[in-house]
Amino acid sequence: MSRRHSRDYRRTKRGDDKYIFGTALEMEVGGSAGYVTVPDDDTLSPGTAGEMSWDWWANPDVVTSAATNTMISKLIGGQNEYLFRQNDAAIDLFIATSIFATVTAVWSTVLSIGVWTHFAMVYDGAETGDDRGRLYIDGVLTASDAGWSGTPNAVITGSTSQVTIGIRSDESAPTQFNGIMDEVAIYSVALTATEVLYNFQRRRVRRGLVSLWNLNGNVLDSVGSNDGTIGGAGGTAYVVHRLG
Prior knowledge:
Elements: E1 11-15, E2 18-21, E3 23-26, E4 28-29, E5 32-38, E6 51-60, E7 70-76, E8 79-87, E9 90-98, E10 101-107, E11 117-124, E12 133-137, E13 140-142, E14 163-165, E15 179-187, H1 193-200, E16 209-213, E17 229-232, E18 237-240
Antiparallel strand pairs: 1-2, 3-15, 3-18, 4-5, 5-14, 5-17, 6-11, 6-15, 7-8, 7-14, 8-9, 9-10, 11-12, 12-13, 15-16
């Protein structure tokens, strides 16, 4: 069995193809920040298809200001191709509309310290207006506070930036996520509401799945070739946990 598909972590079947995932990645240990970097690849950008989805679990150790707590990012030269971050107890999303412009949306009162939350961001350029960018929280489509700050483009403006998990892609401080993340996935399609709920139920949709970082003792891409590397001061640890 190859290293990419090895399953040397603990996993317990719950029935109906649902699993409790055995380990996750703690992003800050002993006061030292750590994170995951993934080299740029065309599969990590929507391209001209105008469809993409991001799916992940997060559990914060602290709830603090917007200057910190990036969960997933693809940014270069101050430009966010996409960036998802914790802002106090809320979630901010940034989607690029041009080289130096983004639209943003905010969802308030989402995260609680020590509580796992499932997120799925779905981008579909075939939709119109605010419906082009949709956020699901724990499997439920959730309206933002005031919609997007502008109209998301049919196609997200791309970049050559690396993808990062747990920090902004330029690796600037203080933008680290202080907490635990797990099961980070990127899709080349706009997931349906049914598919998002399927993932929230600890199963895994395979349609359009480009990369999946299980974070089960390593930062390898378990379905593609976009393997990650631990960055920062090495302040990471794999911790046993239970989702749900």
